Amino acid sequence: MIKSYKLQRTIADVVIYVILAVLGIIWVSPLVWLLLHSFRAEGGVTVPYVFPKQFTLDNYKALFQKNGVFDYPRWFLNTFVVAVFSCIISTLSILMVSYTFSRLRFKSRKMFINIGMVLGMFPGFMTMIALYYLLKAMNLTQTLPALVICYSAGSGLGFAISKGFFDTIPRALDEAATIDGATKNQIFWQIILPMSKPILVYTVLTSFIGPWCDFILVRIIMGDKRDNYTVAMGLQKMIDKEYTQVYFKQFLSGSVLVAIPITILFLRMQNYYVEGVTAGGVKG
Amino acid sequence: MTFIEYRSLTPAQRVKYKVTEFFSLLPGRLKVFFAAIGKFFKNIGIAFVEGLKGYGKRFAAGDMSTKLSYLVMGFGNFTRGQVGKGIAFLAVEIAYILFMWNFGLYYLNKFDTLGTQLAHQEMGANGRPYMVPGDNSMLILLYGTLAILITIVFVAIYVANTKSAYEAELNHKAGKKNLTLKEELADFLDGKYHVTLLSIPVLLISVFTILPLVFMILIAFTNYDRGHVPPGNLFTWVGLQTFRDVFKVSEGASKGYTFVELTKWTIVWAIFATFSNYIVGMVLALMINKKSIKFKALWRTLFVITIAVPQFVSLLLMRQILQVDGPLNVILGYLGHEPINFFNSTPLVARTAVIVVNMWVGVPYTILQTSGILMNIPEDLYESARIDGATPVVQFFQITLPYMLFVTTPYLIQTFVGNINNFNVIYLLTNGGPNKDANLYQAGQTDLLVTWLFKLTMDSNDYNTAAAVGILVFIVCATLSLITFNLSKSSRNEEEFS
Amino acid sequence: MRKTKRFCAIALAAMMTASAFAGCGPATQDPTTPQSGGETTTTSADDSGDPLGGEGANGTINLKVWGPEAVQDILKSECATFSENMKAYGDVQIEVVPQGEADSATAVLTDPSAAADVFGFACDNLDKLVTAGALYEVSGADKDFVTTNNSEASVNAATKDEKIWAYPETGDNSYILVYNKKYVSDDQAKTLEGVFEACKAANKKFVMDAGNGYYACTFMFTAGLKIEGLEKNADGDDVQKFSDYDEATVVKTMMAFSKLFTENKDIFLNGETTKVVDGFKSDTVAAGIDGSWNFANAKAALGDDAGFAVLPTVNVDGTATPLVNMFGYKLLGVNTSTQYPNTAIELAKFLSGEECQKERAEKLNWGPSNKVVAESDICKSDPALNAILAQQANSVPQVGVAPTFWSPVGTFGTKIVDPDNLLTEDAAKELIKTTIANVKDE
Question: What is the band of C309 on the pLDDT scale with cuts at 50, 70, 90?
């Protein structure tokens, strides 16, 4: 009886291993394809076989030579700078808003929360043109600060998850500190923030990744100013009808170079991410 | 009903319970919701009337220097020892006047017509044309809205100024000393800390989110379409005409027909995309976290690595892989299968393909997000099920899934709303195609409302239709999420803190 | 009392915002003349013989030009020549910025004042640009210059409402049959049936982007259902005007296409044009319908085996009917937001003139719109240029195409080449009806 139970368990485990292995392969194989073909020497956009026949580093080298109108290193740097600044502003905004909504009590707080929740749900394409002309009125179009503003200005609306996290920190801490004479400002910086590493990392991570992924807003803001493109915009440009035949392999290698740092960052910070999102977001 | 009671029901009863619960509560929830919206506007109205009353009363009761504050902002505070505050009020007034004089008035003046002077060319003496400048309806609408919003803020500050002046006067008369600027600022780090923390985000959101939003909403009430593109044309207000067009379901191709068809598919998509990710992600999370399974980190990394690749890269990659001559079809060819044209044969194939690819993108998130909660399911529930001889599958459907549904309903609704607005997957994978329904207006059969909206703006320049559709989508999403959020446990429980 | 402090914070912030606007307000938004550039134009050009109309008198003239990436170097040297020519009249500084012709109209309409003074665009965007008031009309002597030097078709492509609005710079924005001579003989390339036959024999694919309105309109035009610019509908909006057509012929032709494509479904590959050259490189494609912008890539992939021919014929009830395509032109437009309209017009004339077109035909194989260059040896000796210029005779100019045209016509094409559904007579009739209604947004 016990033996058969054990056997059953072993069989179940084997089945699970097989499922995980098969699905795991399915999940990573597109990325492996991306990596392999970024070294492909022959062919254009598609080739009628799975594994490249010749490997070369030329696709990577070409990214770093200024060829034609594509200036990948510059775009990479632009994106990095924009990401750093918008990450700082976003993180501050999100933490400030979510802390206020979670731990401070004031009139019309509920109203603010409700408005904040729904504002982000408007499909934003129509607002792009309005954003453009607002930035133009401030003489900021075609500049990197404009991008920083676009990516971080609305970020305060993404307070839900970190508010959820702050909600889980016992209220008694605040009360004890208040009795000791701490102001709310001191409580925020000296007591709550040091306890919030997971949500801090989560917020930093998500807001840092944002600028690497946008390919719509940047097109309108930057117009013909190629020096100020971001990586996403540039990569998108490489596969335009006009360029794709020549630049597709560089698109692949460029994508790999974007993915590597973010992947490393993400894998290292994964545990914080899980902790933050579980505490704050998923549980109702 | 507590979870334990809920647990004792059979699966069929549970579904019935959930469904009846949802629909029996729905009218009530909607009522509460709209009552809350009504109350919201009522409160604004009351506050406005009260403010006006107080405004008049204070003018009548105040002394000379308070009365002067009605003209020169901050005067009352200035004369009662609140120098800093007085100067701040004055600065606001000056800034506002400068703004209106240089910028705002010009646009406000034309806001009712959105411009009357058409820019056009006239022939010059040298046989070459020159431009006679005219109005730009779009800029008038945008900057006019900006001027109105700034005016609203200014009026609020202005009324506060009169109130502050009057209070300073009363304090002064009562022999009390008014707070200095330093003391007031100190209060912003404690009693009014929420003001300090919220001010900058609220300002940024107002200018860069709310203002463009109001602009977009207003466009739905104009005739800003491809025949009325500035600067060579003017557009103007047309009331509800655009909404009538969207709802007009005529025979053959029409916006109304397209709207209905795309709404159907959007809902189907949102349901499948949400639940496929949810269930598959949860099962995988359970497998990875099973005690006897080794190499947990490896398995998790295999799945999670797709999150780290920027989405537009991974989606364009999938598009390439699923091409009719792409690698997946090459592999199918090795296996002796005909190539499948995933994106260009029948709508069913394309729709299935996008849902499957969406799983590839979304399941890793679910794995990360649910792992923690899955660990929290009380072990004794499983224990007793095992004693009853329940297989893992039965355990999943009788314990795990109901428990998770019970705990994560708000999260599911959020994901659902997110999927309604899931632009990237459709835009980058199929761009709406294929289209074998000739009756669709500027859309394909995998287009969601949100990608249709994008095409309407970018390709056919039907800005007003796009705005109207956007508003409709927004109303649905906002209602759904407000109701769920306000009735969710976290929202109801949070007041226990205070 | 309580609220006042909150307002202090907002007040300061509002002040900052307001001053940001106030700072730039008067410069760009003077209430009396909200758009700059209007007042500089009326100066007379004729008396002194100064082609720049005196614009050089007030210091440096700064112009921006948009052209596609491939032409950057040539464009730069051409602009330098122009500046050199104009030295006597003023200091002209020209910045050349890469911007593809397909997107340039969108970019101009997003913000005309940030766009180039002189920009290249595909002629199907002419309506959009003219309606939005973004182009200066070509008039007087400039008009004569355009009409005498360029082919009639290209001038038509720059015309709307009987006025000319732009300067034709190429006459090759279209697509023809490109094939691998190893598998398809020049004779087989003359008929669609022959092409399919050759592909079948070689077990290679034939590629066409039939779901894309730009290519799919071929089915429509070949059947005799053509477009003739725009007309006003009952609401006074511009809608597509279709030619009179004989329904029986159209249906017959559609069914002939449908039959051919269902019979050859194993050979036919419905996909983007990139698959043509890709397929040549990997030797999986024998022929395809591809645009002039990919000719150089096709030559690079196939070398001497690269074949170019006008679109083949299709057999409709025993008659070989030649395929009719959509033929576009690239035009140079002068932005109405420019500060220096006279100089910009001169530059557009120069860049679209004979010399520059000749240089681009030589160095880039761009088909000219200029009559003299089109007749020159440069074009006659190049098979690709020869074929595309010959295709012009069997084509509908890409002029007056409504923005609502592409998507329904793409659907039209998708249904014609649908491998599993042979089009019936009723289905064809229905398809014509709905497509036309959809294009007209009725």
Answer: very high
For residue B316, the chain A residues in CB contact (below 8 A) are 239
How large is the average pLDDT for residues B458-482?
86
A203 and chain B: CB distance < 8 Å anywhere? no
State whether A48 and C68 contact (CB < 8 Å).
Answer: no
Mutation target among A37, A40, A42, A46 for the C interface, most CBs of C within 10 A: A46
- In chain C, what residues touch A45 (CB-CB under 8 Å)? 274-275, 278
CA of A200 to nearest chain B CA: how many angstroms apart?
Answer: 17
A166-172 LR contacts (CB < 8 Å, sep 24+) = A166/A98, A166/A99, A166/A102, A166/A103, A166/A192, A166/A196, A166/A199, A166/A280, A167/A102, A167/A280, A167/B490, A167/B494, A167/B497, A168/A279, A168/A280, A169/A103, A169/A195, A169/A196, A171/A103, A171/B497
Q: Which CATH class is domain C173-327+399-439?
A: alpha beta
Give residue C332's identity as a one-letter amino acid code: L
pLDDT for C364 beyond 90: no
pTM over 0.90: no
State the chains in contact with C (3 or more Cβ–Cβ pairs under 8 Å).
A, B
Q: What's the rounded mean pLDDT across residues C67-84?
A: 90
* ipTM of the complex in this document: 0.89
C430's CB contacts (< 8 A; 6+ apart) are none
| Residues A61, A257 contacting (CB under 8 angstroms) | no
- Chain C CB contacts of B160 under 8 Å are 3-4, 7
Gap from C152 CA to chain B (nearest CA, Å): 22
pLDDT recorded at residue B211:
92
CATH code of C58-172+329-380, in short, is 3.40.190.10
Q: What is the pLDDT of residue B11?
A: 63
What confidence tens digit (pLDDT) does each residue in A61-92 have? 988 886 666 889 999 999 999 999 999 999 99
**Subunit contact B454:A33, Cβ cutoff 8 A:** no
Which fold would CATH assign to domain A61-282?
A: MetI-like fold (1.10.3720)
| Residue from A126, A134, A139, A241 to probe the interface with C (highest C Cβ count within 10 Å) | A241
Distance of alpha carbon B444 from alpha carbon B463, whole angstroms: 19
